[in-house]
Design goal:
- Helix content is 74%, strand content 5%.
- With 182 residues, it is mainly α.
- A hairpin with a 4-residue loop joins strand 1 (31-33) and strand 2.
- Bound molecules: zinc ion (ZN) (2 copies).
- One zinc ion (ZN) is lined by residues 33, 35-36, 50, 53.
Length: 182
């Protein structure tokens, strides 16, 4: 109400010079009735209407209300900083949550990729094993034939060796003729 009165005072150029007056008694407003929360004049004070009401001089009322305003301003400021703190905590929780879900996502993607690579590796190794078998098998068969051939050559060689060591000319010629026939 005080603020409203002050605002009217400033906005109305006609009343700029004079102080606000009581509408009922046309007297200067000098008191504030706490009970009715309005400004009254000295005649109002003596009326029955305000008889048992709590009245104060205007400057004292202003002082009291300014104090009250200041304490509610203080508590509101305190409340604001508490709410800001809560906001910060909530924001931090959200970003932690987002980070951890991203972590889970990355881990699961890499697990999938690892699995795919392992399967691919095993498939390639299997194919390679089959290919190796296909190529090596005939080579091993060939090797066995080569070794058999080598054995018979060695056999022949040792026979020839024995023949050259034959001291008896007759037996030598006989065996040589027999060998050539063979
Ligand atoms: Zn009055
Ligand atoms: Zn009153």
């Amino acid at each position: 109400n005080l603020a409203e009165g002050a605002r009217k005072l400033k906005l109305d150029p006609k009343e700029k010079e004079s102080k606000p007056h009581c509408e009922k008694h046309q007297r200067e407003l000098e008191l504030f009735c706490e009970t009715d929360r309005k400004l009254i004049c000295l005649i109002c004070r003596d009326c029955r209407e305000h008889k048992s009401h709590d009245l104060r001089p205007i400057n004292e009322a202003v002082e009291i209300y300014k104090d009250k305003l200041k304490s509610s301003l203080d508590s509101l400021t305190e409340k604001k900083s508490a709410v800001l703190q809560t906001e910060l905590t909530q924001k931090r929780k959200i970003s932690e949550e987002q980070a951890s879900s991203l972590q889970t996502h990355i881990t699961s993607e890499f697990t999938k990729m690892r699995q795919i690579l392992t399967e691919k590796e095993q498939r390639l190794l299997r194919v390679l094993g089959e290919e190796e078998e296909r190529i090596v098998e005939p080579m091993e068969k060939n090797l066995r034939e080569i070794q058999e051939n080598l054995n018979s050559i060695e056999e022949e060689l040792s026979k020839l060796q024995k023949l050259t060591e034959q001291k008896d000319d007759l037996i030598f010629l006989k065996e040589e003729a027999c060998r050539k026939r063979r």
